[in-house]
Batch of 2 targets.
Target 1
Amino acid sequence: MRIGVLTAGGDCPGLNAVIRSVVHRALTGHGDEVIGFEDGFKGLLDGRFRKLDLDAVSGILARGGTILGSARLERARLREACESAKDFSREYGIDVLIPIGGEGTLTAARMLADAGMPVVGVPKTIDNDISSTDRTFGFDTAVGVATEAIDRLKTTAESHQRVMVVEVMGRHAGWIALESGMAGGAHGICLPEREFDVNDLVKMVEERFARGKKFAVVCVAEGAHPLAGTMDYKKGAIDQFGHERFSGIGTALAHELEKRLGKEARPVILGHVQRGGTPTAYDRVLATRFGWHAVEAAHRGDFGKMTALRGTDIVMTPLAEAITELKRVPADRMDEAESVF
Amino acid sequence: MRIGVLTAGGDCPGLNAVIRSVVHRALTGHGDEVIGFEDGFKGLLDGRFRKLDLDAVSGILARGGTILGSARLERARLREACESAKDFSREYGIDVLIPIGGEGTLTAARMLADAGMPVVGVPKTIDNDISSTDRTFGFDTAVGVATEAIDRLKTTAESHQRVMVVEVMGRHAGWIALESGMAGGAHGICLPEREFDVNDLVKMVEERFARGKKFAVVCVAEGAHPLAGTMDYKKGAIDQFGHERFSGIGTALAHELEKRLGKEARPVILGHVQRGGTPTAYDRVLATRFGWHAVEAAHRGDFGKMTALRGTDIVMTPLAEAITELKRVPADRMDEAESVF
Amino acid sequence: MRIGVLTAGGDCPGLNAVIRSVVHRALTGHGDEVIGFEDGFKGLLDGRFRKLDLDAVSGILARGGTILGSARLERARLREACESAKDFSREYGIDVLIPIGGEGTLTAARMLADAGMPVVGVPKTIDNDISSTDRTFGFDTAVGVATEAIDRLKTTAESHQRVMVVEVMGRHAGWIALESGMAGGAHGICLPEREFDVNDLVKMVEERFARGKKFAVVCVAEGAHPLAGTMDYKKGAIDQFGHERFSGIGTALAHELEKRLGKEARPVILGHVQRGGTPTAYDRVLATRFGWHAVEAAHRGDFGKMTALRGTDIVMTPLAEAITELKRVPADRMDEAESVF
Amino acid sequence: MRIGVLTAGGDCPGLNAVIRSVVHRALTGHGDEVIGFEDGFKGLLDGRFRKLDLDAVSGILARGGTILGSARLERARLREACESAKDFSREYGIDVLIPIGGEGTLTAARMLADAGMPVVGVPKTIDNDISSTDRTFGFDTAVGVATEAIDRLKTTAESHQRVMVVEVMGRHAGWIALESGMAGGAHGICLPEREFDVNDLVKMVEERFARGKKFAVVCVAEGAHPLAGTMDYKKGAIDQFGHERFSGIGTALAHELEKRLGKEARPVILGHVQRGGTPTAYDRVLATRFGWHAVEAAHRGDFGKMTALRGTDIVMTPLAEAITELKRVPADRMDEAESVF
């Protein structure tokens, strides 16, 4: 069998572990051949690929990033490309394509599958918001980075009687904020799934100070939004450089809390450090298992599906299901988190 | 409600997170009172306990160990104690006991429950070998510590053309060896669940050297055993000090490989570092959720059960089921791991 | 002897290690008594202090922050206080005061010493910019945090062909940027000590891309400033919230590079995570030694001085010398760093 | 200029950082050519080397081990080789050799220098025991690994009322034990430089238990030795496999303490994890500076010397001085450490 593999979308710790696993399982277990397309779908369209043997994937298991590169591709070009999908298989002589990526990638994967190309997807997102899989690799690493930051900020907040607002990734789903906030013991967690009332945060901080706990840490997802009327914040406001991304909720909330409380409040925007670097052991295992099962699915002819974690098992689930709706934090998980502040 | 909590058995990162979560949920969510028994069941028998308020659990979320202490108790004394269980409830005026512990503790918990005491258990083992829960807290931390050690050993093995044998915890179940071996990219993994053939390891190392990869790392669970006739090893052999534990399989295997291969082989026995220290974010979240749900179960009167992870949900499962058999690594997980060496 | 100790100024990993060391050495080595003033000089002025015995400092060696708290104090109030310094000694019955702090604290310490109070200072700054000591504790931890961030950002920059701009602490001296940039292998380092030419950075990135290295990481100290005419940047510009700190050089530089290069550039502002959390082993050793030697100096009557590292020795150096000028990165260290990009 | 570089002796985090720095400085700063000999002096003798350009050293800064490999060489063969040293220079057309290694390597380097070969040495040892340099790279990483282990062991020891004995590297000098013991807050530190009295350790543990601190951690260097008559221990005793190394002082001491105290004591032998893996920021900076200055020295014709850290400066020091005597822990450093237990 000849397998094509590519990585697309934003960076995510564990991508290299999937690539390595696909190559190991395919070559050692089945005697297959594997080629890797460069810079995601761009490489597929432009015919930029290279053969991946055991040496090519040696030493990459613990490395962040992706040895194949990744790049954004305009939807239009991708759609156009998908329509000619069958040609790819013939052109590069591949029997199956294993695209590793997020919602956009899996949507493209489905278009390719619908167009008749044999495809086995591997889901990837640090946001953990893909339906039909319990978890995605990269998420545990992101939560670990954010938790370590909260751990560090707590000691400094405590010594200086400050409020620290940590903004973590999560535009549409608040999984990173939920779990890093819970693991770090944040005293407030704001998620995109539930508009937050700034008055509640103000009250929480005041009660803590009254109890002699003269500091607080609030963990806020970048996509969190205040309840209308409780705070002046326009999502997507443009900063002095014309960039939307530089004036996020974390900075705005720290400013608001400082103003209302009359106490020092500082924002920390974690940003891209959550996306890079050595994956945790958990993510390496999950990524390795996804790679392994993708190859097995390819050999079984189980196309049009993607790997998914269900409990402790890796199962195959239709691409169509995976991308219908975002997996958001359910209300009971938010309640759990709130009650252990 | 008045809740008693205790921690028993070997150390496990996340115990403090459970205690903290129980106290927070009980006090803040329900207006309960919580007392903590010292040194496990010993404190229950001897009447050593203290009140746990929010201040008592402040700052312990990220700390290893247990603020309540833990101690071994002879089965006989425990059994005797269990028979008089109802007295405890009355004596200390507790409406429910939440024992946090491993197989032995859960067995004791069941005895107490059978004797009529309201009990809600929380499973705890770094070995991840308790049935009816997908995972236990502490395991992820242990795997992380072992994986970091393997990462470090790989670079030094590679530079010096050596074979390194890492012995990790796992007397009856090989989960730590499986996942840390997979995450660290070990070239051989030996588990208690499947006797290993030393000849296979010798062949693997020789093939690697032949391919120009002049090093290898083998990850072996302390309870792994060689196939009869492939290596001279008597489990439980007594060392020069009369201790069984100081002459384990790791050391023996390194010696055997060195002898057969004519190459340097070194054992590294990780030992207790796997049990201590700051829990990973994953373990803190799982421990916190277990604590939360144990309190909720207590308030629902859902006794004689323990918390368990199923997929992404925390469910309650009968104590009787949990302790009937050890959760061992199934054959397909071993096959997966072996094929990505 | 009765010793008073206080921590003042910004947070710095290792403060607790100094406190612990002072208490251990004073109590165990000399049979002294130690009291700790709360919230820096504020506690000294307001008479808020508590006795510190071995139990009070148990378990704090590896903890960030300061168990004594720290707070800013207006210069005027401090000066006023210093003039009545002798009273403190008599009022609290202390034979010596050990203030642990940065430049401001050491200046105050000197005023107290000049006013006749027995003082032994311990220098503290994550910025490493205090003259007459080779290093200060806290610096190694800050560099470690920044280096780990750069490590993570490099993998993600590489996969996505991006320029990442990491802003680290250092308003007047660029030590953190210098050492974390060097340790992380940044491709450009901008320090307050030397105005940088944006054209050089643009050229560097373009040359890297031309060589096939399609990413770059620039490490910039918060106090770095562009050469006039090479980039439009007004230090201390006020952001949308009226805060100077939220529109730093990191964000401005990322924007400028993106505009000029036509490639994605992203800023990451590390902020307060550099100040908090567990100190590195290096910082714990240095802090412990500083505490030990401060107590010895007190017993020798070696007042008006502070502890300092010279090579591998801890020596006492006059407070007057320490605060005359900031220790800035010398030109040869900048040259070294630049040539290994 | 054509520069030859090699790495010899035991593994040490930072070797790759030196190699990278040499290549960067030589190529970018001077337009030199660099070749790397494989497996230390073996490659020099056998003529196994490869050209090192910027690509060859890309991405290795943070990686443990050495891309050039390292191997032991019998003294006799080396001596023989040294006598024909001039030939090497001519044979490979190198103008200078930069050997990176420990005491043995530097001795060989001196022989080569005496034989007329232009040599600039770079000292390397995790043990920090080379005279005439304040510190060596690799040491900080080893101390960091050992300290993290002690941190972890303390929490587990405390929860279970145990004595933990951690054996760290250091056959002839106890620097790692000194600094990791101090940083980890060990309650006893045993070094090769001062025979320890087991009775003192027993007394220390008993006093701690009497004070209510029911655990203790002892940090012991592998080369530490008990005072005659206080404990039965024969250095270099042979274990069941005929290996000296498997029956070290850590295991023997744990056994002795358990016997005398009637409390559980457990040994943890850290072993090779101290030698491998990602170097700390401190070690990367020191290694990078050593490489840079070695190239500069070569261009100045400053041969027969090695790089050394003095305070904050890198200086050149005669090889002859470096190897005359081991740098051992002085008495005052031991006193410092002992008084903050």
Target 2
Amino acid sequence: MVLPNLNIVPFISIDNMMKLVLNVGIDRFLSELADMLEEDFRRWEQFDKTPRIASHSMEGVIELMPTSDGQLYGFKYVNGHPKNTKQGRQTVTAFGVLSDVGNGYPMLISEMTILTALRTAATSALAAKYLARKNARSMAIIGNGAQSEFQARAFKAIMGVDHLRLYDVDMEASLKCQRNLQGSGFTITICESAEEAVEGADIITTVTADKQYATILTDNMVGPGVHINAVGGDCPGKTELHRDILLRSGIFVEYPPQTRIEGEIQQLPEDYPVTELWEVIAGSKPGREGDGQITLFDSVGFAIEDFSALRYVRSKLASTGFFDELDLLADPDEPKDLFGMLLRCEAKAAQVL
Amino acid sequence: MVLPNLNIVPFISIDNMMKLVLNVGIDRFLSELADMLEEDFRRWEQFDKTPRIASHSMEGVIELMPTSDGQLYGFKYVNGHPKNTKQGRQTVTAFGVLSDVGNGYPMLISEMTILTALRTAATSALAAKYLARKNARSMAIIGNGAQSEFQARAFKAIMGVDHLRLYDVDMEASLKCQRNLQGSGFTITICESAEEAVEGADIITTVTADKQYATILTDNMVGPGVHINAVGGDCPGKTELHRDILLRSGIFVEYPPQTRIEGEIQQLPEDYPVTELWEVIAGSKPGREGDGQITLFDSVGFAIEDFSALRYVRSKLASTGFFDELDLLADPDEPKDLFGMLLRCEAKAAQVL
């Protein structure tokens, strides 16, 4: 039996990912992606889970993030190199693969630099939907780099956030963020300090990029009832919040074994109590306990979120057609005859000559 | 500073890999690949090493195999699904990535179904160069599937083996192997049993594909001085040799923590003495101890071998041109402005309309 095109794997390039996102619409893309994330968080227990496999160097880190639900297998390759922007490169680039567990064949290869920004933002907003006060409409964003507009758009699409208070050590970054959000229905205030940015904000998003311990938020800056969306602290030695804030907050995480190594809670004892976000989404644990509680989503990004994102873009391929075909897999006429395929290629080339 | 083509990653498709191999020449490719493997085995201690990350299912396994030498980072995705051939698919397919540790950017994506067959064969022949008797010229190959011709060609190119004794439970496979090796300078005998195949052979290669404990070789079949190249037993629960053979042999392995889980030595106590192949190649441990010793290369395949193979094909790209350009990485005009890239794509599309 010969199946057609067994050699082909659909591939979503940067260009096609942009076209796909724009064709679906940024807000709808973020909302539908959040729905798929919610679906996978609800069935969290069905997944194989393992902390990402990291290869650290002086300059940064390269990670592989695999997971499987028994039917599909997905993994993401992602790097984090803070000094890259000085050479015109991205701090974070990524690509991912979705495969069929039944036969091990890749079914999709996709760029994930843009897709990771979208899934991180959609996950943040999904968490806030469960953890922030229901009437939260204003958000401070501290760190106005590559992630900031995605966060803003996701919080608007999923939470209705329409007031932004932006702060970055580099004001150019804030101005770029403001410019990119023009016409999206936000009231935007550019602030000169983190202190000013958090004033009156219902939600505080921290999304800075330095690979080091930093104190973006000090204890006195965080008032009662605030939801903190801590996105930037995502590897060992990189945190953004003062420890005292953690001690005053209800802490929600994706996958404790990974977050204890990489998240804000690396500052706390190993057995410090945290709640897994999936438990809140599945309804087995409470989320916010009253309007006065400080809630903290200590986000580091987990493989299942990338899996959901790959699953989502795959669901859009047939209807949009934004993909190329990669000749990635060997498909000899007779499966056991891999060497014969090589010989026939040689014979064919000889014929052409 | 804007660098040109930061979005592009060279990609070697199945078709281009075949053209690359044929352009270089199969024998020269295998020899040069063995040279690069030898170079990397010599500097084995410089590499980050970890057992592969496996995701097992009823039907098979999907694995990620990362490693790094501090300058380059490589990983391979590979599946193993023995029932695949019944559906016209490959038991094993693979692809790999080589990256720059300094900035985390992928530098090469390559098919590795064909490349893995070549690297496995080159590694086997390299090991035999150090472990088999110097005058070894005849080899039994038990299991005449997709790997068999690659093994034969590598042993000829690197060791001068020119007598083959083929056996497979499916004689069609042996006939296919014989056909594919026609005109390559081998004297070939097709045998009706494994016992017949090993008669008088200097080297015995076992390369069967069943995912189970099997006894391809029993103790009485292996005479003094033979080198056994055990390639097929490569995951937990899959072995090919009777335990008594192991007890009579000098055992050489790639990376003990992985081989003890996956190789023939999973049948032996955890502390049973084995020699690492790199130590023999680097000259710090002896290889074969006299013409009467039975040597066994218990091969399961290790990430560094894939790293060498990716490094080798990458060295051939510029001179041969057999690659495509994948638009895989985001390259906004301003590195921190990923969202702006999306907006400009939208503006450009609007202009076209």
